[in-house]
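Follow-up to my earlier ticket, as requested here are the two runs.
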Amino acid sequence: MNKISFLLVAASLIAASSTCVADEITQVTTPQGNVTTTVQSATGTTTINSSAGQSMVTRSKDGTKIEMDSDNSVYTVYPDGSRVAAPNGVNTLMDGETITVKDGKRIP
């Protein structure tokens, strides 16, 4: 499961309930890039649909705003809202996760 989908699932679970333990999480991606994530728990089943083209906004450890699109494009976002392809290298996000960027794309 990629970080964007995980964050969408986490946000939905937080909004729906103060506590939830997932028994099973499944994810299906269509050729068009649409993602359906299903979370099954003791309290029920939650399904989250996301369309291709959605993006996730986060911050790097140094506070720089970063936007990641569903096609693995990574951008640095400036205070005026403009964005440019993120520089090559390893970036550490606020939560400690690291992402590697090459030519403006996140690579595994």
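Run two:
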Amino acid sequence: MPLPNRHLTSVLLRREGELFLFDCGEGTQVSLRRLNLRWKKISVIFISHMHADHVTGIPGLLMLSSQVDRDDPLYIIGPPKIAEYVESNRRVLDMYINYEIIVQEITSPGIVYKGDGFHVRCFPLSHTKPCYGYTLEEDMRPGEFHPQKAQALNIPMGKLWGKLQKGESIMTEDGKEVQPDDVMGSARQGRKFSFVTDSLALQEISTHVIGSDLFICEGMFSQDLAEDAHSKKHMTAAEAAGIAASSQGIKKLALIHYSPRYIEYELKQLLKEAQEIFPETVLTRDRMIFPIEFHD
């Protein structure tokens, strides 16, 4: 349930000016307004599963987006029944929608969305309803351009430098072919974001979130309530940390989706238990911001 200082689950990822929303709990549009974000820039909403606390913010967000000029379609990607949920809300509420909404139901794990230089992949979780985790992973980036190498090869600054940086080979004025590798460093790793909520702590999750710069994962219960967590098909904060620790290359674990039984100061126990296993763990708060830097 939502609490006065703790809204329901929703994570917004901004990349190159484009916005991606992971789950859309009640009150999501309130946080968007308080952050002064341009919600029409949201390209895709990814839904983990069809429980109310993860989808009840969708109708308000759809109507909010109709208050601004929007040319691009809005994609909504999620498990079975997400299309029925969106359509029934549009019909019953008689929504005025002035842009295209494209709903895609997940039929199997794998890549569910591709953009310029990145892709989003889903993988199955274990909850009381069909549930999916998501990773957004960038393609490999070109290596660093070395101007001194280009100058040594008598390549004039300008369009030819640009072509080499784009991975194209060129011909110099004296007829010599120059390959990008002649002036560029090794390809660099792109960034990776992972989102997991409402699931038992499956061992296979660690293989999907490997190398995440930011791993958002539920930490609903303290370890003394592990039995209760498992009966509801949730995980504890310590189990989320165990996934991060067993995976390779995770830079930061950010816990989310706490049980409403924990008031603010009690959340420190969740953090303590997680940090004992994975020190780079933080508790998320509403409207908290995490920069995800490039690997150079």
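The only thing I checked on run two: The chain has two domains: 11-141+188-283, 147-182. Let me know what else you need.
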